[in-house]
Amino acid sequence: MNPDITRERQNATFDVEKLTHILDGGIEKTKRRREIESLVISDPDFQSEDLNFLSRSERYDAAVKKSAQMILKLREYGISDPEEIYCYKSVFRGHHHEALGLHFVMFLPTLYTQCNKQQFKKWVPLAESFKALGTYAQTEMGHGTHLRGLETTATYDPATQEFVMNSPTITSIKWWPGGLGKTSNYAIVLAQLHTQGKCHGLQAFIVPLRSMNTHIPLPGVVVGDIGPKFGFDEVDNGYLKLENVRIPRDHMLMKYAKVEADGTYVKPPSAKLTYGTMVFIRSMIVGEAGHALAKSCTIAIRYSSVRHQSEIRPGEAEPQIMDYQTQQYKLFPLLATAYAYKFVGQYMNQVYHRITGDISQGDFSELPELHALSAGLKAFTTWTASAGIEVCRMACGGHGYSRCSALPDIYVTFVPTCTYEGENTVMMLQTARFLIKSYRQASAGHQLSGIVSYLNESERRLQPQSVSSRPTVVNVNDLASLVEAYKLRAAKLVEMAAKSIQQELQKRVSQEDAWNNSAIDLVRASDAHCHYVVVKLFAAKLGEIGDTGLHSVLSTLALLYALQGIQQHSGDFLQTGLLSVPQLSQVSQRLKELLAQLRPNAVALVDAFDYRDEMLNSVLGRYDGNVYEHMFEWARRSPLNKTEVHESYHKYLKPLQANL
Amino acid sequence: MNPDITRERQNATFDVEKLTHILDGGIEKTKRRREIESLVISDPDFQSEDLNFLSRSERYDAAVKKSAQMILKLREYGISDPEEIYCYKSVFRGHHHEALGLHFVMFLPTLYTQCNKQQFKKWVPLAESFKALGTYAQTEMGHGTHLRGLETTATYDPATQEFVMNSPTITSIKWWPGGLGKTSNYAIVLAQLHTQGKCHGLQAFIVPLRSMNTHIPLPGVVVGDIGPKFGFDEVDNGYLKLENVRIPRDHMLMKYAKVEADGTYVKPPSAKLTYGTMVFIRSMIVGEAGHALAKSCTIAIRYSSVRHQSEIRPGEAEPQIMDYQTQQYKLFPLLATAYAYKFVGQYMNQVYHRITGDISQGDFSELPELHALSAGLKAFTTWTASAGIEVCRMACGGHGYSRCSALPDIYVTFVPTCTYEGENTVMMLQTARFLIKSYRQASAGHQLSGIVSYLNESERRLQPQSVSSRPTVVNVNDLASLVEAYKLRAAKLVEMAAKSIQQELQKRVSQEDAWNNSAIDLVRASDAHCHYVVVKLFAAKLGEIGDTGLHSVLSTLALLYALQGIQQHSGDFLQTGLLSVPQLSQVSQRLKELLAQLRPNAVALVDAFDYRDEMLNSVLGRYDGNVYEHMFEWARRSPLNKTEVHESYHKYLKPLQANL
After folding, report:
1. Max CA separation in chain A (angstroms)
2. What interface predicted TM-score (ipTM) does this complex get?
3. Which UniProt keywords apply (chains A, B) (predicted)?
4. What's the CA gap between A366 and B45, in Å, rounded?
5. What order of strands is seen across the sheet that includes strand A174-175?
């Protein structure tokens, strides 16, 4: 054990194990999580060479192997609880993806929820036994977030009672679905349904892609891998071009909408039914943002405690780089953010499960709010976390660039969450739509409830006044007061966005153009709303913490999170008169004090995330702090070191020398 | 040609070709650049498969091959002017690196400048004929930016008149030098010189690594590749462990410091001599930041003009995504930044060449200022450009993640500039040291000259006053007025940092601790200083533009750059009383107008960067806008598509299906 990191742990002022229980949701959950982790880590079948040393084809191969093993192991161990499966998977996947990911996340759930009874009986056993290896083909080369723009067609032919599936244009080729390129023999394809000469919009169809015996693509199916990407090397994101592929009528998923034998289209009872999965996945992503940032902070903070560099005082030994204020300022607010997002993730999960109960009872009343919240928070947290991972990586100096740090893998695996499941800017604008609608309701005298109830107060409290005459309400040492400031900022920015739309409308432009011409303000308002929610939930979490030591350190984190946000957006707080100039100096001063206060607890706070070395897979983030010897060992395994002299010497360099 | 992009070009209000000349520095330079580009692009020897389809070993192989070819070609064509060589290289390298990069950038220049006469006669011909393939081994596993911390030792043995080279610890192993792993047979090694029982600090030594005949590592030399990284796949960044390697006395580079036969150490005449290269490389990086951002903007803006998505007005066709205000707000300020950095790069280059003349005359007076400026601007521009590349990438939706967009390559190739040649935070603090020193001189009554002369005024102008009572000086429509505002902001933030140090000192902490405890403020002050310099230089450039159409569009860009910076740092401008709250609303409004104003010129502005398709190597950034058909073609070449059925199906999936 590196003595620096041992000393860090000795200096901690709280009980790390207790904090781990809080993050897991209870002591029993910690115990079970560790059991599952040990199952995977001690399993010789999951040992493999570092994926970074392999070619793309080898990485894909290794991922398929692991996925196949996992399926057998889960059955062997009888693990069937979704949360436990999720835990098992996140260990064996490491920072990467599983080859059959879409089969589990989209193919199976869609069958479960959108098959009618007969379909269920036929398809679910095929999918659960992996005879049908499936994916979900929605995105097209020219169409992403805007689903109505999808071009793939399913035209019903009553003569044969079949749908004829086509990719009528180059932009309509399905593009990006995971597992589509090489792995899947079936896909659920989203296509525009045409029947009796009319288009009825998007429906889901089960399309066989490859022979179930030979895995060779079927006639009319042009399918393949879309090529290398920024990360996701182990996944065969694919393309799919359909050329008059005929499928039987009962391959359209018919739990809700239907096409009858003669081609008559029957509408689904409610459009809200497909809402739920989306909300669930986005809520999960919020937790993943906390997870990715927590892993990155663990690596950067542990390494900063064993890395010595430069000098603060001349002549003295090189200090730990965590002693530099600039390093603390980079890492500690991100550490606070990681905690914040983990708590927000817990909250979203709880709300989702509560509301799911209501939905299954036919009560959709809370869904719009949750939908708006999950969209905005997904964007808010993934943007911050992505940028934060890169800050952590660069805080590790040169070694952050080495694949042995794991930080490049964490980044390229996480950053796509900014784009998939709803592009972030579009998500922010969806939340803004809800906020503006709520604002208008409040302005019209309706009493709002739920998270947007603060908009009720906006008319009363936010009269325009000059900055200096405004009474100063914020106490920079009091979290509750800061939550209030975030709330008022959000209220003010929603109001400003609404007024911008109003002003545009007065120029006699259309509603739609007024919206687009105010889009910058709308995104800003959503951002402020999400920031308020995060600060509020972090503060609320503190209320649940009884242990004094824990409460103290988490309060420091929460205060740091709130104050750093104020400093970063100080213009907003000054502009809206929520903060005075002298108070802003207090904020800066207080921030520095909080950094110093957190310093002795930094390593313990990342230890509490409880990532085993085998899961972090980072030389820099090792629990024992023995970084350098293991970095040397890792490097020697690099494929380029398999021979002392690379063949290129004989092929190019020696002839060059002879030529000159 | 895609009709959307044709229409964009027709709408432009200025002469693209003229702007290209300005960016190149004159019509003749444009002409010559294009000639050289054509030489490379039309050369069948430089055609190769997309590197993204190759394994790391194949990529390294391809890079060595290209470097060897380039050397022969440059001789064949008689290209020897450094600027023309640089141009030639930047074409054949694309977004990647050359295998022999360090040989040219560090090994040869160090020999030129630090050999004495006899050494020059021996080593330069060996290096110029590539018999000696060299690199520059400075960074160690545990030591980067802080050079004094390097541990490698060179101990003089007068008995044999040799230096004994050693890596005494694991942290002293040389780590990261490009070309060290497999390519080089020589390295210039920086090591602590020990002679006559005393350490005399760092000196440079020529150390043979591999046999010049067989390329096999020599006894005592443990050398290899450090393994895969975030980018730089084609470079063999290496490690080097020296175990009692003996080299003759004349392998120490002795132009300045010397060791005599008996071991007597002779000091060099001046320490400033090694300054120059560092300043030069950092200045180059500023230009590279403009270059990387310009390439990214070209890709994102062209793609945004042909990509249609979602809807603004219901029922109408999907609009070009460049019509969304949020898309404009992402891309146009970055476009303005790319122009700004290109102009700053031109300026730095001119200043460097002017001052180099002075230095060779023994006049070092301007060097400290240039050193401080190049350090800060290197950090300021590389941070912004790196984040900007990612914004461009994500503004392309899902396809930005595909390697066919080229944006992932541009990012991973550029982002290391934040860390190498001086870690950015350290660079910012170096600039801050110069600013604080200048501030103190001004406070003590000295009249400052040069770029920091604004600190002369600080005492007089920046008396604390309340925000509302301050007279409003800024005209948000006038660039000169905005330059002034940036200047005053910088002055105020330098003052605040100086006062923070002062306050710390009053708490009786040491100078060094006071500095560290004010580091956040110091970085902020440097940042404001650099921002001021960039805005000022952009405004100054406008003074050189005679053409009305060009002047108009560049003025719009400059104003956008300045106002967006103010919006992003609105807290600073409000806090320092340089802007009032109503003015801030004006800034927001004006920004939206500028976005709309730039919209018709956006494609033409990236066309003016004049990157040929072969250099951009981006399907999304194609000049003709025919994105989708070429994306499909690219994907089909993916190595995973070489077989219809991947072997993993037979190895894992079929057995899995049989098992369940």
Report:
1. 90
2. 0.96
3. FAD, Fatty acid metabolism, Flavoprotein, Lipid metabolism, Oxidoreductase, Peroxisome, Phosphoprotein
4. 64
5. A174-175, A238-242, A221-225
For chain B, say whether A593 makes contact (Cβ under 8 Å).
Answer: no
Q: Which of B176, B214, B325 to mutate to test the interface with A (most CBs of A within 10 A)?
A: B325
| Tens digits of residue pLDDT in B229-249 | 999 999 999 999 999 999 999
pLDDT of residue B148: 87
Question: E-strand spans in A2-59?
Answer: none
Alpha-carbon distance of B612 to A341, in angstroms, equals: 44
Q: Which domains does chain B have, with CATH numbers?
A: 1-11+276-458+473-659 (1.20.140.10), 134-268 (2.40.110.10)
**Least confident window among A48-52, A357-361, B211-215:** A357-361
Question: Does B552 touch chain A if contact means CB atoms closer than 8 Å?
Answer: no
Catalytic residue of the set A421, A484, A495, A504: A421
Greater confidence (A617 vs A279) lies with: A617
Q: What is the mean pLDDT of chain B?
A: 93
Query: What is the structure's pLDDT at A472?
Result: 56
As a whole number, the mean pLDDT across chain A is 93
Q: Which residue has the higher pLDDT, A464 or B31?
A: B31
Chain B residues touching residue A217 (CB < 8 angstroms): 644
Judged by CB atoms within 8 Å, which residues 374-433 of A form the interface with B?
387, 390, 393-394, 397-398, 400-404, 407-408, 411, 415-416, 418-420, 423-426, 429
At residue B472, does pLDDT exceed 70?
no
- What is the SS3 string spanning A471-511? CCCCCCCCHHHHHHHHHHHHHHHHHHHHHHHHHHHHCCCCH
| Contact residues on chain B for A637, CB-CB shorter than 8 A | 227
Q: Catalytic residue among B140, B288, B421, B495, which? A: B421
- Tell whether B631 lies on the interface with A, counting CB pairs under 8 A: yes
**Which two three-digit tokens encode residue A623?**
């629990």
Q: Is the pLDDT of residue A68 over 80?
A: yes
Nearest to A276 by CA among A191, A370, A145: A370
Is A61's CB within 8 Å of B588's CB? no
For helices A325-360 and B519-542, what crossing angle results, to 10°?
90
Contacts A133 to B, Cβ<8 Å: 653
Give pLDDT, residue B273: 56
Is B584 an interface residue toward A (CB < 8 Å)? yes
Q: In this complex, do A400 and B419 lie within 8 Å of one another by their Cβ atoms?
A: yes
What CA–CA distance (Å, rounded) separates B113 from B483?
A: 40
Q: Is the pLDDT of residue B469 over 50?
A: no
Query: B134: which strand partners?
Result: B186
Q: Is B421 a catalytic residue?
A: yes
